[in-house]
Amino acid sequence: MKPIHAAIAAAALALAPSSASAQAAACTKSPCKVVIVLPAGCGSGITVAPDPLIVKSDGPVEIQWTVMNDQWSLDGDNGIVIHGGDADFTKSAAKDKSISAKTKGPKGKTYKYDVNLKKGNDKCTLDPTIMN
Fold first, then answer.
1. What is the three-class DSSP state of 18?
2. Domain 3-131 architecture
3. Is 40 helix (H, G, I), strand (E, B) or coil?
4. What is the C-alpha separation between 115 and 100, in angstroms, rounded?
5. Would you call 49 exposed, middle or buried from its count of C-beta atoms within 10 A (0-12, 13-18, 19+)?
6. Is the pLDDT of residue 17 over 90?
């Protein structure tokens, strides 16, 4: 990981809401940005910030996920898989390090999603939450 990516990731994680203050940090307008970090590869685990992602808006909101690691990238269009969200999200085609999805479904639902990363033949997965 480049020093600038480490600094951005550390800042994002430091600013990520704790469960006690998550409501105050809800995303209310597009884009809602989510940072994906692997501090020392898959063995150290994937971290996303914020988690959970709380979306509070009257209209559609775009969620943007970005991988902050030089060696790992999204596993194609399966880089982000929102469980039960096919009718409630429109997902864009994945780029190497980023992907986005726009909310379109009913409010008041919670979705688990998978972050699937790859480095060559190696795979790494995490399952954070979206609260819409």
1. coil
2. Sandwich (2.60)
3. coil
4. 12
5. buried
6. no
